[in-house]
């Protein structure tokens, strides 16, 4: 729903701004190119905004004829148009007082120009051109010619363009594949792959002013805060990654010439900071398929969790992925182990006391011992939570692992500890206080609160909720952040805040003699805000892996932060040896310190309406070149 909302909102925002800025003029006109079955005219007419404006719509003749028939068959629409009976003359399929529907191929510019002249289009009055996901389907030479024709033939004109961008990153590859399968390739993307290229395109084709935003920036900067909050609370929602990635792959552009005053509908409202420029890159990290795990379909999943329970043994649980040939919430546990340098995996159906085990995403799994791990929280759907805590019990010897060797037990929580389990997208981290082991549950979200900023100290192993003093500035509430144990405390990095904006802050919950203290970790340059990443600490360096950010010119790779100096370096991931797009969000990762490697398991998710992409195989990232002393 949100993906379609933002498209309509962007077009309406720009169109209504044009009508407002020209309301004192005697006549204006709107020319919608490739209008399809768009209802824009009828919405504007019903709102009383077309007192001195004529709307012209153009599309292929068969589409225009179908739309004309539809309008005539609905009396409410016919009444709004006020049919003058001028249709049926050549390419004119419908003609009303302030609405003209034309059947012309946009690539035939001379015919388009003749037909527009016949139907009364006036080149001398202010004209708004609209091309909403249209030009990208045309041959680029023809769409360029159309843009230039509009600039050359209309002295006072505005152009509104909405379409796709960033074809080569992982989400963009999935997007392109989707449109190729529909035999509707996105032709403009080869020459105009980003917003900067589109900006240069219009300035080079005769337009004197141009501004462009991707849809993350538009939502943040051009939609009032109260409307943002309304949209965010309309329905139970948890597809943040899908939403933000979709928005980073569409843009809205507003170009103009000869307009007095200038037409600037994409000027940010209020004082909200818009998104910064490109991210500096210090180098690259090679990625390769982990051969021993490449044929395990159950590892294609997202929203799962993986934990190293003892050297060379990893447990992966939960999430949504492939099981028994179907996409579903994964119930089975996967035990990954390495022998003589080679990885293998065993799929185990656990002994489960009830069905709640297999119905959770975005939970946490924490190692308590070689044979025991704790599962905290998670959800089945955004409105179905309260899954509690579970013990995972593993066999003493892993070599003979088989079905039934992993058992699951429900944790009978004390009332004070129940709130710690009623959340998802949180973190659970091992800490030490006065020589005792605790699990620190922080942040996340719940069915009632979209963002949580509270925390709980659970004393292991009985999981009693313990009050421990915490001082210092309290971090902003967040979910989908990362958390790592470090020097008896916890490092919290990034996450998604209350306004659904990625956060770039890093906090250390530092152990003191009498309790803990929140401290801010300053980095230089500042950490690029992100969420849905994973994190690890190695020899005083914090490693942030993947995630989602709003800098659409690149995707997050591996960021290395020196916790002593604050130096923050970003590394891209070299995927030349992968045959599929690597999506590093909703994944899990395990750091292997001896080899200085990261094993990335799963990741991906739904790609808006373009289908589901799950990373098909676990991947090893070799960090040896960036972790040298």
UniProtKB/TrEMBL annotation:
SUPFAM superfamilies (UniProt xref): Galactose oxidase, central domain, S-adenosyl-L-methionine-dependent methyltransferases
Pathway(s) served: tRNA modification; wybutosine-tRNA(Phe) biosynthesis
GO BP annotations, alphabetical order: tRNA methylation; wybutosine biosynthetic process
Enzyme Commission numbers on file: 2.1.1.290, 2.3.1.231
UniProt-listed Gene3D superfamilies: Kelch-type beta propeller, Vaccinia Virus protein VP39
Catalytic activity: 7-[(3S)-3-amino-3-carboxypropyl]wyosine(37) in tRNA(Phe) + S-adenosyl-L-methionine = 7-[(3S)-(3-amino-3-methoxycarbonyl)propyl]wyosine(37) in tRNA(Phe) + S-adenosyl-L-homocysteine; 7-[(3S)-(3-amino-3-methoxycarbonyl)propyl]wyosine(37) in tRNA(Phe) + S-adenosyl-L-methionine + CO2 = wybutosine(37) in tRNA(Phe) + S-adenosyl-L-homocysteine + 2 H(+)
Family membership noted in the UniProt record: Belongs to the methyltransferase superfamily. LCMT family.
Protein name: tRNA wybutosine-synthesizing protein 4
Organism: Quiscalus mexicanus (Great-tailed grackle)
Gene: Lcmt2
